[in-house]
Amino acid sequence: MKAIRLKKLSTDIKLQSQKLANEGFKQIFNHINQLNIKKGVDKMGLDKFIDQSAYLAAGSGVLSGSGGMFTLIAGIPFDFANLITQQFRITMAVMYYNRGSYQIDFDEFMSLVATSLRVEAGVALSKTMMEAIAEKLLMVLGTRAAERMIPIVGAAIGGTTNYIFIKRMADSVKKMYPLTETIIIEVG
Fold it and tell me: Is the pLDDT of residue 144 over 70?
């Protein structure tokens, strides 16, 4: 019986991964205002912008775990969408900070997301790669869902794990997209 439930869970994760890969990532990417990312990084600096995104992720984690099973079921879709949005925001912020241009192409962006999640990214952005990213993100959220079922304690766990996830992703993206040094040559 347990094997059947695990197989169904695996199938459900695969189906949700495909759905997220086919439409969800692009939709989330398109709803993020890249100019606001630039303005936020320019105003606060990269590290404070990352902290802000981590706190926003922690907030949805607290909400989804605050009431136990009831808020967990209702809050998971919102929490998951917010977690992906915050991860995308920090990735865009690091890319902007390092290259000076805030307009980022979706394919290049998803390749960096894949690398930061340690998903094999080929030369071209493929449907398989996007499904692997979605599956990895769903697994991260799924492993933490059971911990959030206890009211109050679930809020602390949800907020803390979301915060740590975003901070770790930021560190990973920073390592994958290092700052290029500018050489100043004096003329005259």
Answer: no
3-state SS assignment for residue 124: coil
Question: How much is the pLDDT for 180?
Answer: 46
Domain boundaries, the chain: 2-176
Q: Which of 107, 87, 91, 68 lies closest to 164, judged by CA?
A: 87
- Max distance between CA atoms of the chain, in angstroms, equals 80
Q: Give the CA dihedral 99, 100, 101, 106, nearest 10 degrees.
A: 40
- Report the 10 Å Cβ neighbour count for 184: 4
Closest CA to 29 of 98, 112, 104, 115: 104
Nearest to 118 by CA among 173, 57, 180: 173
Q: Is the pLDDT of residue 97 over 90?
A: yes
In this structure, what token pair is assigned to residue 26?
A: 């692009």
Q: Residue-wise over 43-71: b if at least 16 C-beta within 10 A, else e? A: eeebeebbbbbbebbbbbbbbbbbbbeeb
Backbone angles phi, psi at 126, to 5 degrees: -115, 160
Residue 161, pLDDT above cutoff 90: no
